[in-house]
């Protein structure tokens, strides 16, 4: 792929790139909708990546091209970048350049060519991969001296303030900070991270990603409403964030809230606790124990948080019935993907069972990927 990306850059931009960078998509093992509540999550990077070829420009122009686009080059003046000024996919890389300048950093233009293998709209953080690959490339091209958590914050700010999606920081932290063979235990408040060994193959396990092909758009208002509900609940409870509510305090706290906020708070608090239990089991070398926590987490996302849908629910149900150790939707919800922890010798049977269940329900066939704990953003050429 590297040679193709380099060749496409030269064809589009008429000169050689200064380098190639890659940033992965991610699956979140557990800890969904906790990051914007200052909570905990346990994501891992995927082998699928956004790859960027880039070269600086000294004329203040940002020229963007994507192998997944319509073939046209989007040309922008860096000095004119502003929220809402760039439509479509280009708002993610352009937003990163804007966010760097908003921090007072002296960054200019560039020629960029992007090519991504992260499925779009599948809940696997394709947008974060685009943002993070631009962030790490600009960090090196312009010698910014930013640490990885700072780059993640820049990418998150680009998505929040420029693209208009009020996401937390988990996706970007996973994309820049994950390491091969590990899941990333993330504290979303401090941005403290801990690499937790996740040896699937050594325990005869595989992690399947079942892409329902139901497209989700987190900018449609539903995600923002959930976040606002959580922030309102924290204010009513006198907390800085729901992360500060312990599981043992939950029953008393729920009695002080309006009925509409109760399920949101219950999900966030119990999900934070599930992250802790999952990290303990992985650290103890017991990855198979993750299974029941996945299924429990999905029930919470479905019943309390209301972000599942018929396709994700069916994928979880069919996978578990076919022998999966556990399964749950991953990502923001409203469609996207399900992860299923399976014994290696049962992976094909589980995938077939989910596909058959979708056919029986009249749904389109899901795409099946394998999630392997992979490396975060890096220079590749």
Would you kindly provide a written description of the structure presented here, covering whatever features stand out?
The chain is of the alpha+beta class and 381 residues long. The chain folds into two domains: 2-196 and 375-379, Ribosomal Protein S5, domain 2; 199-371, Alpha-Beta Plaits (2-Layer Sandwich). 39% of the residues lie in helices and 21% in strands. It is built from eleven helices and 13 strands. The strands form three sheets. It has a six-stranded mixed sheet with strand order 5-4-6-3-1-13, with helices on both faces. A four-stranded antiparallel sheet has the order 10-11-9-12. A hairpin with a 7-residue loop joins strand 4 and strand 5. Helix 2 packs across helix 3, helix 2 (91-102) packs across helix 4 (148-162) and helix 8 (262-283) runs antiparallel to helix 9. The longest helix is centred in the C-terminal third of the chain and has 22 residues, at 262-283. The termini are close together. The mean pLDDT is 96.
What brief labels describe this structure?
alpha+beta, Ribosomal Protein S5, domain 2, four-stranded antiparallel β-sheet, 11 helices
Ends: how far apart? 11 Å
Total tally of structural domains: 2
Rg over CA atoms, rounded to whole Å, is 21 Å
- CATH topology label of the largest domain: Ribosomal Protein S5, domain 2
The helix tally amounts to 11
Structural class of the secondary elements? alpha+beta
**Would you identify the regions where 5 or more consecutive residues have pLDDT less than 50?**
none
CATH class placement of the largest domain: Alpha Beta
Order of helices and strands: HEEEEEHEHHHEEEHHHHHEEHEE
Strand content: 15-25%
Q: Which sequence of strands runs across the widest sheet?
A: 5-4-6-3-1-13
What is the number of strand segments? 13
- The average pLDDT is 96
Keywords: ATP-binding, Carbohydrate metabolism, Galactose metabolism, Kinase, Nucleotide-binding, Transferase
Organism: Streptomyces racemochromogenes
Domain GHMP kinase C-terminal: 280-359
GO molecular function: galactokinase activity
